[in-house]
Amino acid sequence: MLELTDTTFTRHLADADRPVLVYFWATWCPPCRMLAPVLAELATELADVAEIVKVDLDAEVDTARSQRIMAAPTLNLYRGGELVHSMVGARPKHALLRELEPHLSVLTW
């Protein structure tokens, strides 16, 4: 997963040719550690329809502040640089897919 920074966040989302799921995480967050392998797996499975990237909340405080991230983990889905869906907390893979499905209409599972 690509790691975005305060410098690259806005430009990356604006330039994306498909939806981008941003994983806001922190090293001190146990649910983040549980969610990381699930997202790594989904990054491969969904590569044709979405991109999954991550932002370290402790290192990229300006981005966390500008996106109003209040908890870790937070997953924000952006299309054309605009927030279209947000999820807070860890979830199993099937629950993530179910929640993302309406926003990624080309998914067929």
Structure overview:
The chain is of the alpha/beta class. The chain has one domain: 3-Layer(aba) Sandwich (Glutaredoxin), CATH 3.40.30. It is built from 4 helices and 5 strands. It has a 5-stranded mixed beta sheet with strand order 1-3-2-4-5, sandwiched between helices. β2, α2 and β3 form a beta-alpha-beta unit. The longest helix has 16 residues. The radius of gyration is 13 Å and the shape is globular. The two termini are 22 Å apart. The model has no long low-confidence stretch (mean pLDDT 94).
Shape: globular
- Tell me the CATH superfamily: Glutaredoxin
Helix-residue proportion: 25-40%
Separate helix tally? 4
Strand percentage, roughly? Answer: 15-25%
| Strands in their spatial order, largest beta sheet | 1-3-2-4-5
Number of strands: 5
CATH topology: Glutaredoxin
The figure for the number of domains is 1
Identify the CATH class: Alpha Beta
Global structural class: alpha/beta
**Uncertain spans:** none
What's the gist of this structure?
With 109 residues, this protein is of the alpha/beta class. 34% of the residues lie in helices and 25% in strands. The model has no long low-confidence stretch (mean pLDDT 94).
